[in-house]
Amino acid sequence: KITAAQDGLTDLLQQELNEQLLVAERAREEMMAAHCDELDDLIQSHDLERRDLHREIGELRIECAQACESNALEQPLADMRAYLESQVCTMKNKFEAQLADLEERQREQRVQDEVEISQLRCSLEACQEDL
């Protein structure tokens, strides 16, 4: 009788543990999906900004070529080149900053995921010890 009751209790505790693990796994999957959606949105935003910047560069090149052809250049070509180079440098710095920010977010998410996994393992070990 005691063994049957213990087996029933063990089964009940195992079932409860399994349900908690499923809830935790679903929560982790939802967080990962949300994280992936956020990364997708960020990448899409970066792609749109990159396309806009490439379009602007193309427009600036066309304007520069037209100005050179029509001799309407008000400043020397070297100054125009320096201006464009500074614009490219600024864009590069922005891309690097955005990439660093993205990498930092990913690192933080990994740390958070590792902490959550550690907590889940500790919880599992505690439940297993209780059994």
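The above is record 1. Record 2 follows with the same two-line structure.
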Amino acid sequence: NVYTKTFADPPVGARKYFRGDFSKERRDFMAKAIDTLSKFHIVLSMEWLAYGAPQVRSILGFDDVSALTTRVRPHITQAKRDDGQDKNNLGSASIAKASWVPKEYLDAEQYKKMSEDLVLDEVLTDVARRMFLERLVCEDVGGGVAIQ
């Protein structure tokens, strides 16, 4: 629940509320995290980053948005890879080799623990994706960020 904690900014020692019978506290943390996220001028989804170009231009003022569709890697030894997927027009969701299925890599016990520990972050990620899509739709119907 890293993202939920980050955006909710709970007091020190609140870790105990993210497990067990503390549903009211978790609801409060989630509500605060969503409220905080909604105040951001721009919310982008990595899976659909290529579609965020109009928002990046209008809100951030960037003219060159080509980086939104260029595949980058975190380490210099990974910088160049000839896998035919260096350029994509649909965001990271279109790069098959960028994804892996956790159930194929984790044992059942670890998968269950991680699923339970990260459930609030999964929900918050879905909320962020929805914010991104809603702002994109508002843009298409004349609201939100103007399409250039």
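The chain is about 45% helix and 0% strand.
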